[in-house]
Amino acid sequence: xxxxxxxxxxxxxxxxxxxxxxxxxxxxxxxxxxxxxxxxxxxxxxxxxxxxxxxxxxxxxxxxxxxxxxxxxxxxxxxxxxxxxxxxxxxxxxxxxxxxxxxxxxxxxxxxxxxxxxxxxxxxxxxxxxxxxxxxxxxxxxxxxxxxxxxxxxxxxxxxxxxxxxxxxxxxxxxxxxxxxxxxxxxxxxxxxxxxxxxxxxxxxxxxxxxxxxxxxxxxxxxxxxxxxxxxxxxxxxxxxxxxxxxxxxxxxxxxxxxxxxxxxxxxxxxxxxxxxxxxxxxxxx
Length: 286
Description:
Alpha-Beta Plaits; ten-stranded mixed sheet; 10 strands
């Protein structure tokens, strides 16, 4: 039987860097919220242990694909090598989230695989264990596995659940792919933001310190951002390239969406405090 699973986008409502570890990872303070928009994975449980991504992503080898990595990691954790009872999976990815867009597409896909296969394979692992496995894949994976809007610290793995206003967003997608490493390696990136409590950060205007670096190297990011700023508070998500404007109502967001110029790719989405992935999991378990 094939099951359909959402892999939602996330946005960083603010992002500050408070330092850098000796291993090169940056110390963050950021606020994650999910969107009701994202990729979709269709997963069929198979026998014999083989994991297949039926439609590989262009430019990404199977070895480097986070979907395959996540499935194999879960499989190794739950079954011994050469165990004849080891299940496999055929996975079809419906990809709509841009690569290098700051919306967490690859991390979300990996998290969905961990959560979905844990259910379909009957692994019985807790969310805490799945989160620990997800962190091995990437720093953004844990928030998708846990499935609640969160204030994140450390390298992004120290998560405090939060309840946020679920606003509407107009997301603009500049035609560039920004590698996180290109932003974090820039010498002009501000890495000394003052460490603040969540209450302090919630009481000031939200900012993303990566935005200035991204605009410097990718003019289209600034072009899209300047257009959005004419209509609503706007900023970049993650390390880019996507930028978003926030609105109190769907109607307000769609009114601006209808005015977007022909050179701008964009979509409207609602912020969500509970991930669509976990809503799907709850329905499956009923």
